[in-house]
Amino acid sequence: MNIKLNNRDPVYLQIVRYFKEQIAIGKLEPGEEIPSRRELANRMKVNPNTAQRAYKEMEEQGLIYTERNLPSKITTDQAILGKVREELLVEAVDTFVASVRSINVPVEELLDLVKVKYTSKDEDKEA
Amino acid sequence: MKNYIKLANFEINRVSKLFTVLLGITLIVQIVGVIVEARKYLNMANEKMYEEMMSIAEFLEMFNQMSFIQVVRSVWFLGPIALCIAGVAFYIFLIWYRDWFGRNTFVYRLLMLPTSRLTIFFAKITTIMVMTLGFVAFQLILLPIELLIFKGMVPSDFRNDMGVREVVSSMPEISIIIPGSLLELILYYGAGLLAVSILFTGILFERSFKWKGIFAAVLYGAVAVVLFISPLLLQEFVVDHFFYPLELFLLEIVMGLIIFAGSIWTSGFLLKKKITV
Amino acid sequence: MIEVKEVEKKFGRKKILKGVSFTANKGEITCLIGINGVGKTTILNAIMALTPIHKGQILIDGEPLKENTFEKITFIPDAITMLPQMTIAESMEFMHDFYASWNQERATELLSFFKLKPNDRIASLSKGNSAKVNLLLGLALDVDYVLMDEPFSGIDMFSREEIANVFTSHLIENRGVIITTHEVGDIEHLIDKVVLLDDGMVTKEFNAEEARENEGKSVIDVMREVYVR
């Protein structure tokens, strides 16, 4: 559980986001058990109340569910899981677009470059 | 009560090293003293009899038999007693101050015990009393042993035998420490306890108010002393020997008890409300 | 809840606390921060009746401190409170003797949590280890409130890590904790509530997570606003 927390965003939202990322890349699978609140607090070095709040938030968003007295699990609801992926993607693209807009490139040129970079990155990784 | 016993036991353990060292010094120095003093006398007797050809009778007439009092009056005997008294006097202060100073501030622990803070006061005053009575008891055990050594060294013609009781009563300084009767014991040590309680209160004034506290402590001590002798002053200067000695004596006891209670109350108040770590 | 209300305290003529008020809740970690000088330790001492206050009131669960309050609240000062000649085991024995709230099982657990050797003498401990013994003796009491004075200051990095682990563990869970510090960097994510002290007064009392959520400010951002003017 490797998480780099920043000091300005609410810690509980950073935790929620971390779970979303893990779900999106498949590190956490639907129905998988997640650590207890206390264990999470301990591993992430955060206040147990904050961990508690993060779990509450994830429960409200339907990302995790808890059957009485059992460890919480990642949801198996495909609609929610799909939304997580989409949400992260849109968010990442939004950030990218916002920063790239200031350079004022034609969209075709940008997309070509994105294509080249994105695939070469993949090859780099495989190599 | 349980906490008081535990804490008193703990405090006594803390002083046990100093206590043992002082007992050891007393044991060694006094016994060496008996031997040295007896030797000195016997050497002198030898000298006189063999070199100056005195007879035993002539020698005894001139120099008297040796009595144990000679040992008792020597620095060998009184020195260790003075040292033990100094040790107790010193420890009356150290028993408090050692908790505040040094790397380890034990006073935090003591003040945070889930028990009345007066327990600390009682445990410490008990330790001082136990220490004092311990020295006295040890001296009482040591005396017959020293008398025995003395007898073993000095031939019966040359010595004037004395019992422990005679030795003790022969010197007023010693008979204060080891009183002849139970009443005296209670009175002397009661007065000692009273004095320690006043000193403790003074120390707690200092610990509570620092420099101003020293002033308060001196004032408290002075008031206590004046109160204590007030019946005597009254007798002498105001009522012109109105009281019988026994009445005066009882008045003194009542005064002592009042001051003792006052010291306990004041110490309790300071420990609870004014003390600072 | 620990309530500190309008507490004033003088050292000689100098006022160190000029009407300090704040509260610390059970189940939360409250951090008293002051970047300079005295005051923080004095507040903890005052809560424990280890130093008198001149004005104001301190309540623990609505009541002023009494003898048996020490079974409910404990203070871990920055210096060790046991005698140098005692061993760790003897120190634990001492606590066991006097406190009904002493939890031997938890004490043993803490001993191995901190990797301490029971037969080591207090005098021989490193700064880090004596801080851990201090923590052990406080945390092994089943008390509702724990006050800690600068638990992270002056000790090595790895001991700091171990001590930080305490704050995210069950050893702290459900207790009310007040810690003092002059440096918040390491523990920013561990604390619930922040009480900023300046010049003998509370300049700001806030929830760290709320400051991040509502104002997008880190604890240090808020501190900068208060202290750097």
Automatic annotation (TrEMBL), chain A:
SUPFAM superfamilies per UniProt? Winged helix' DNA-binding domain
What's an example of a GO molecular-function annotation for this chain?
Answer: DNA binding
Please give the Pfam families that the UniProt record associates with this protein.
GntR
Residue ranges of every copy of the HTH gntR-type domain listed in the record: 9-77
Spell out the coiled coil positions from the record.
none
Its name, as the record gives it, is GntR family transcriptional regulator
The organism's place on the tree of life at top rank? Bacteria
Instruction: Tell me the InterPro entries matching this sequence.
Output: Tscrpt_reg_HTH_GntR (IPR000524), WH-like_DNA-bd_sf (IPR036388), WH_DNA-bd_sf (IPR036390)
Keywords, alphabetical: DNA-binding, Transcription, Transcription regulation
TrEMBL record, chain B:
Q: Which residues cross the membrane?
A: 18-36, 75-97, 118-145, 186-205, 214-234, 246-271
Q: What is this protein called?
A: Uncharacterized protein
Keywords, ordered alphabetically: Membrane, Transmembrane, Transmembrane helix
**Does this entry carry the keyword Transmembrane helix?**
yes
Domain of life, per the record?
Bacteria
UniProtKB/TrEMBL annotation, chain C:
Instruction: Please give the organism.
Output: Aquibacillus koreensis
On whether Transport is a keyword of this UniProt record, the answer is yes
Q: Residue ranges of the ABC transporter domain?
A: 2-224
CDD domains in the cross-refs:
ABC_DR_subfamily_A
Q: Which PROSITE patterns match?
A: ABC_TRANSPORTER_1 (PS00211), ABC_TRANSPORTER_2 (PS50893)
One GO MF term = ATP binding
SMART domains noted in UniProt: AAA
| Protein name according to UniProt | ABC transporter ATP-binding protein
Q: Could you list this entry's UniProt keywords, alphabetically sorted.
A: ATP-binding, Nucleotide-binding, Transport
Record-linked Pfam families:
ABC_tran
Task: Tell me the leader sequence span.
Answer: none
